[in-house]
Design a protein that fits this description.
Structural class of chain A: alpha+beta
Low-confidence stretches of chain A: none
Distance between the termini of chain A: 29 Å
Shape of chain A: globular
Order of helices and strands of chain A: HEHEHEEEEE
Order of helices and strands of chain B: EHEEEEEEEEEEHEHHHEEHEEEEHHEH
Number of helices of chain A: 3
Mean pLDDT of chain A: 97
Mean pLDDT of chain B: 93
Strand content of chain A: 35-45%
Distance between the termini of chain B: 28 Å
Radius of gyration of chain A: 16 Å
Helix content of chain B: 10-25%
Number of strands of chain A: 7
Oligomer: heterohexamer
Radius of gyration of chain B: 23 Å
Low-confidence stretches of chain B: 1-5
Number of strands of chain B: 19
Structural class of chain B: alpha+beta
Strand content of chain B: 25-35%
Largest interface: C-F, 42 and 53 residues
Helix content of chain A: 10-25%
Bound molecules: FE2/S2 (inorganic) cluster, fe (iii) ion
Chain lengths: 161, 418, 418, 161, 161, 418
């Protein structure tokens, strides 16, 4: 049984993660993860067939921040915002003291380009499978697996889910 | 938008310098899109549809498309390959609704007509009616009601299907210039590692141009230059088949001195702004194929792209969906005898390619911003005179020659040649 | 996609065995869709638009469609029925924006022109201007600016509307073959119990075929066979009007021996895989109408389906929205004198029908997978030769005769007949 | 006033229900309901007019499991996944010891067929009205009324909402 | 650190607000605000450029109720329902005793007109920035700032977000 | 839907009483939409594209549209204005992907061709290849590969762009009747206060009619009458340019007696149902411009609307997107010397206008319900005979004269005149 304090801390982690991305504060994004971490975006199509190829995988904080640098400096894509909805959060304490979490996400993408400025569409839906640990009393994602139902990616995937 | 069974006439004016100009109309016009389906995708071409490794066992099937016609490919009882249009001979329902699976009989859900792996009609419920009433007459001949069967052939485990009844053999269609490069990639037994799908709001030919275009590589994809990983040029070249419709772009790292010289020539600003990779493990790769190449980007007209980008191996299937939409399906593979490390490298390098690929996500966007810009200017043209105006193999990458090759053949097939 | 006021010419080639073939073009072509709106829905037909029980009181209205033209049906001051096109005579706004309601005056929101229940213009703000300035001149004649009024008639409480000025009476249009079956369902005062709506990505005529098709009943809808409730055949038959455009499919349970014999004849595998209903209360039904029938599925050309499926009673209105889209609106009803038990049975049996119906949800899907498969093959045809090649009443259900009847009449109305 | 324990238990019921359906574990679906139960899917159109016809109604666990059997064995439909979002949950303890709950749902449908594989659309939105009871200390739906705003059902409705 | 009681009260405010609008009980809508209040609907486009023009702004309960009166009596628009999803709620106690809240919203609009009856679309996505105070022990919105990502408004905006 | 490079012929029959009738076909037909793009938006007109205040500094740009062609407007090094089509001269990508910003060089992301603020090509990567291989030949002339430049001019800080090479000066195009009213609004330096965007599912010309239509003001927008703020008429009038294409509607409060008389004349019911504003602070306004007007609603053909509604000042840009879709962009402004109070009044009055405007939200809805009603009746016509049948300035608001002026000029430009 999780204490309310721990629940609130974990819920805040999961909610703050969303605002970090949606408010375009990507530079903070790696800090939501533990020192040793794994972030994987996996099409449901592959997972269901036992195939290992991900859309994105980062097995270190360094790789996370390289994604952010690429996002800011290298990659070319249509200007846009994300807006997440995350709900149906279930928390399960694990034997090793970590917490397993699952929740559903939707990302709406709003274009900020000249052609479709201010129009919004359902961009991606799926589910998060997290392992959460406490480092310095702060909850962090040891692992965040993003299972993408919407495996037919519209245009491209550059901003993390 | 069809207005009758006959083919619509198309008024198109190719500009005078036809080899180096493409009128934007070809990316916009729905009548051209319709004609492509008939004359091109159903025409004298072999369409890539998948890998033998996807359907290894008897009864395995894959449902996919040729152009935008739904088809099914099956592994027959004899181990052979079959293909048919995915449309029931009775009243036209999709017979096969899942993208893959295994079954010995394809049963249409509507009235349960059933077909064998070759597409022959083998079962018709209530065929003779009940108690002498209803059903089909004595003259009903199942042989007249098979699925529409298609030619199928494979080369090195790559499966191709054609609507054309008379056609060059697949080997000849690929041609002696292209085959060695397929051989390079498929010398050992492969294993499918996964899929990704990308839906792009642009005409499919903008992507066909993109993959034949080495010009954009270091200019649109800024990952390497941003992280100071190499400068803005590589060694490489372009090889085409005789028709100019297929091509193979290869690139490899040059020596430091060559790069520096090239760089000076180009007079380009550097993009290296002092960023370094925080985790360089992403760059780990292994030389595994002869000859050594950083990239092999090969196209087989009309809709196949084959890629070796460092250690990521994949086919890409271009599926047109509408004049301004296409889907791109990546099928990633490795070799069955990959060691664990190599497999791990492939999975990590998956970050480079596909819809979220650090050095490839931009291609879909490039196609989309062209589509967005040209909509009202179908009479204007793009200019493809980079590296000359002819269609010929090149030992450098600063050329649009393979794009010119594509259009040359395209105009021929479509009846747009002068 | 209209390119001018005149009707577009349509090139269509009906295959030689015209009675048993339907070229897929009719489900695809936007010019055909346009012509249907003019010649068929606005042509010499009576279109079902609703039930008198939906608008019992003076001022009650229902807004709906004929083809895809918005119309309004009202109950007038005299208790009579009126219909008009839902388009303001001033500058064309929808006058009535809600699907149902009660009002004695229909006021257009744009400039408040107001119309009475018959559709006559009765109020024009600032008609004479203010202080002699502006407004309409003395020659402005409200009689010239009524709503477009339509013919309306009802039979047994079913309301029909027609754009045609000269037309058979509704009774004659329904015909002596169809009327008794309407009488069967509407002998007692009815009560509307609810609605459901289903939006289907297919041409409306694929559904028109589906409801005239007894062949698919036990083959597509597997609920009963899965649960071992009956085997794969029933007794029944098909009755049509003289034109073959309307039909009535009836089915009833046969004796155990008849079923067994029929079953052997068909050579069909059984679907009963040993599943039983955990809660058989769903099967409770009551025989209430003479003659006893399990199902009465009746169509009135072009867009009405009437159903009695056990104790569920409903009309279905087929509303085309685009060449590849239609909406299906179910209006469920019972009788005003239903006892509580019977009412409870109807509500429970609602599980069988509609968009989530255990034995009917599949019909929309069937139409959709046909639409998905045929898009590129407009020159190919479906085969409707089940149970012969003619249009004639049948005392069995293994026949596509009513489908043939539909197309026979359709070709006539559309000018596609040989 | 509900204790945090009861809140968490009820929230978990509501969230786990969603994952059960979205992960295609329909066989477990009836177990979210009480022994005596009522599950009704009702178009807002009918409710607003006081008309009684539902899209689906099951007044026993048996009927729920018959729906599942039909889903698995009998019904024919385009292969798809659901992904729910459920939020704005309000809990109100009732005099009889049960708990009334209301929440809003959205279901996104992702196609898994050959034609539109991996594409996602808004399939249905509406609201849940629940009566929740404890059986063997486990919260269960005594009644779940699904009011469907999207009463123009796209294609068909086979997987429970 | 907020007590569970206060958290629940604030969450209930935020959730009940949604049901009030979605169930078309707009007459209650002003009562979710404090006596002195500010309700602003602001396009992200303007906010990001530091431009002050809002879509809607009401700086009193009176202005809120005038909006409701106009909605009911004056404005002409296509009949429709809203259905909100609100998630990723983060609460932060402020020095002055008030509570800052941020959450993401989506509004789905379902048409109730004759042309598109029962069809649903994503109408608006964005985020709420709230300042919540307690008046008579009831939590109220002192300020609710609605930042609209979907600044290309489809058709019109009449029902409050 | 283009089927060739040539313009499609259009069959359209304007009704006999052409000045007071508009066939609905003009709002539906995609061929007409296409022709509008060519003959009208790219024709002999000046298109409003923005305010100088939006791009005050060198390098500032605004990307927007003329009709549905993407264009860019820039502030050049000399402080002058430039405009070009937003389509790269190489292979057609959007050069400028953001709606606004500042840059001295516009670089296409695809192959980094770069352009100066005038649209001249100034940089081509690898232009000369590397080490003598690839690249463009010696005859490559950057001057041949500039962006498509457009005519640009401004009046009182309003920027207009034209595709036409020969054209009246902007001043003449605006004309002596319109200019004084622009002068009225732009006498002092302005400051942009914000934007709003509204996407409407209707043909853009339904909105062009709406803003030229004083008839609907008190009948569709019920806010004032509901709250008893004034009765259903105001003083005012309509002024047009010589062609009748632009107009200016002005309205002002009349005295109590005038209103009462007018009201009696109209025979209208009142809408005042006893509602009062709970917070009347919304009504606070300040007279600031001479002559005093409650509203100035002015149009400049084809796509500009200028508004002064009490103290809200805004331009509206009408951008057609498809035959049945347009976007409306409001740009709100005040004066740089506004005091704090006046600025606060403008912000509060923003509640009146735009997509959520208490007295304006209805306009988009009105356009949409017309589009919904007329789809099937392209041969029917609207009636615009309010206030006579001619095109002439009026000293009252009960007239559709400015709508008639719009259509008169439209028919001329489009080649639809008798
Ligand atoms: S359509 Fe396939 S069996 Fe009838
Ligand atoms: S459009 Fe109906 S009153 Fe003007
Ligand atoms: S398309 Fe612009 S540089 Fe190539
Ligand atoms: Fe590329
Ligand atoms: Fe059926
Ligand atoms: Fe207006």
């Amino acid at each position: 049984m999780l204490t309310p304090e721990i629940r609130y801390a974990v819920e805040d982690l999961i909610h703050a993660y969303v605002h970090c991305i949606d408010e375009d504060e990507l530079e903070e994004w790696p800090s939501f993860f533990a020192t040793e971490c794994l972030y994987t975006v996996m099409p449901r199509e592959n997972l269901d067939q036992g195939l290992p190829i991900p859309l994105i995988s980062c097995d270190s904080q360094g790789m996370l921040s390289d994604r952010v640098t690429a996002h800011r400096q290298a990659n070319i894509y249509g200007p846009h915002f994300y807006r997440h909805q995350v709900s149906s959060l279930l928390l399960t304490p694990q034997a090793d003291g970590s917490i397993a979490a699952r929740s559903n996400y939707v990302v709406f993408r709003t274009w900020a380009d000249v052609v479709q400025y201010g129009s919004t569409e359902v961009y991606s839906v799926g589910t998060y499978r997290d392992q959460i640990v406490f480092e310095n009393e702060q909850p962090k994602f040891k692992e965040r697996l993003v299972i993408v139902d919407t495996c037919r990616v519209d245009s491209l995937l550059v901003t993390p889910l | 938008m069809q207005t009758g069974a006959a083919e619509q006439p198309i008024e198109i004016q190719w500009p005078e310098e036809a080899e180096t100009r493409v009128p934007y109309q070809v990316f916009l016009d729905s009548a051209i899109y319709e004609r492509e389906q008939e004359r091109l995708f159903r025409g004298p071409v072999w369409n890539y549809v998948g890998l033998e490794a996807e359907i290894p066992n008897v009864g395995d099937f894959k449902a996919t498309f040729i152009g935008d016609t739904p088809i099914v490919v099956t592994r027959g009882k004899d181990g052979g390959l079959n293909a048919f249009v995915n449309r029931c001979a009775h009243r036209g329902a999709l017979v096969c609704r899942k993208p893959r699976g295994n079954t010995h009989t394809h049963v249409c859900v509507y009235h349960q007509w059933s077909y064998n792996l070759e597409g022959d009609l083998i079962g018709v419920p209530f065929r003779k009616g009940i108690e002498g009433k209803g059903g089909y007459g004595a003259d009903f001949d199942t042989a007249q009601h098979s699925l529409h069967k298609l030619n199928i052939a494979s080369y090195q485990g790559l499966i191709f299907v054609s609507f054309a009844r008379e056609l060059h053999s697949l080997e000849d269609y690929l041609g002696p210039q292209m085959r060695p490069w397929l051989d390079r990639l498929f010398a050992r037994p492969i294993q499918v590692l996964g899929y990704s799908r990308q839906y792009i709001r642009a005409n499919w030919k903008l992507y066909a141009e993109n993959v034949r275009d080495p010009y954009h590589a270091s200019l649109l994809h800024l990952f390497h230059t941003t992280f100071g990983l190499y400068r803005s040029s590589m060694g490489g070249g372009v090889i085409m088949d005789e028709e100019g419709r297929h091509d193979m772009l290869r690139s490899y790292k040059r020596t430091e001195e060559q790069e520096t010289a090239a760089y000076k020539d180009a007079g380009l600003r550097t993009y290296n702004k002092g960023y370094g990779l925080a985790d360089p493990s992403l760059l780990q790769s292994r030389q595994e194929l002869e000859p050594h190449l950083t990239n092999q980007i090969q196209t087989i007209f009309p809709g196949l792209v084959l890629q070796q980008i460092q250690n990521t191996l994949a086919t890409r299937q271009i599926l047109p969906k509408a004049p301004d939409q296409f889907e791109l399906i990546f099928t990633y593979f490795g070799y069955q005898d990959d060691d664990e490390d190599l497999r791990a490298i492939r999975l990590k390098q998956a970050n480079f390619v596909g819809p979220a690929g650090l050095i490839s996500m931009e291609d879909g966007h490039a196609a989309e911003i062209v589509q967005q810009a040209i909509g009202r200017d179908k009479d204007a043209s793009s200019y493809i005179g980079f590296g000359g105006d002819d269609v010929s193999d090149q030992e450098n990458l600063l050329t649009e020659t393979a794009i010119r090759g594509f259009w040359h053949y395209y105009r021929d097939v479509m009846g747009f040649a002068a």
